[in-house]
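Lab manual, section 2.4: Encoding a predicted structure.

Procedure: take the sequence of the chain (120 residues), apply the prediction step described in section 2.3, and record the output as structure tokens. A sample record is shown.
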Amino acid sequence: MNSYQKSLVEKMDKYAHFIYKVTKDFPKSELYGVVSQIRRASVSVVLNYIEGYARKKPLVRLNFLEISFGSLKESKYLLYFSFIEEYLSKENYLIGLEMAEELCAMLWKEIDNLDKVARK
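Recorded output:
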């Protein structure tokens, strides 16, 4: 991995830890609902990205990066859902949203670049 990719992994890791931290205060009734789903999605972002870079074939790697992007979009929606349901403060929602949007932009750039290379 190059420095951009390592930076992206670090940001993904911080995002997953942020999600775990803020969901500790969610209602206990959501432990097997929103809490479980948003935690799995946020960890899936970084895990699929890392697994993609363990693959040799560019199109296989691209598939994992696209799965990572899908999980990121899922977790981003769950942040919004949690804010609307008042499980999440506005401050934490905005922090999480900013993190997610930065990751979306960085990951999409990575996907787009790899797609151009892989399809030549």
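Check your result against the sample. The CA atoms of residues 76 and 98 lie 10 Å apart.
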